[in-house]
Amino acid sequence: MNIIDCREMACPAPVISVKKALQEQNELRVLLDDGAPRENVARFARNRGMEVIEEREGTGWAVIIKGNNEATQSREVSASNGDQVLLITSDRLGDGPEELGRLLMKNFIHTLLETETSPQRIFFMNTGVFLSIEGSDVFEALEKLQGMGVEIFSCGLCLDFFNLKEKARVGGTTNMLTTADSLLNARQVIKL
User: Which residues lie closer than 8 Å to 64 by C-beta, 6 or more apart?
Assistant: First the structure.
């Protein structure tokens, strides 16, 4: 089993390194820092139908990934084809007064519960991650959307940057590779 060392790598480098390595081999032992790097790599592998074993190793983690390359590659290509994706990069909507922008964003997300069509995925990036944390004005609406089958993701790097990792309660954390793949394979991307 090959070992790749992804410690001290910034997002999305660990996931990209693992993706490249999995194109050549079915089993990997990946050395990772705790937090977003470990979570992102484990989720990346699980989302592609691979077995993931996480073991504490010193101050970091070893993530063992086992799977089938052909199944992984075909699942990756079809995972997000045809989706309608929302990309929310701010905690407010528009460029006007902050208070109005926050009210518009709150109303928009609450209105998603009433529309006939829901997006398949919502990605929160930059200050948009403030919407996905416990206590936000739209937290309960996001939980309801998730219960309706909408996949919700917050940028792990953004959560870390704003020291919000512990407050993230709805959806999952994601990395730039997964976000880019989803946006590029989506039928429609709506950026707010």
Answer: 1, 27, 28, 29, 30, 52, 53, 54, 55
Q: What is the pTM of this model?
A: 0.68
pLDDT in tens, 124-145: 999 999 999 988 999 999 999 9
Q: Report the CATH number that the domain containing residue 56 is assigned in CATH.
A: 3.30.110.40
Question: What domain range includes position 38?
Answer: 2-78
Question: pLDDT tens digits, residue range 90-101?
Answer: 999 998 899 999
Q: What are phi and psi of 77, to 5 degrees?
A: -65, -40
Q: How many domains does the chain have?
A: 2
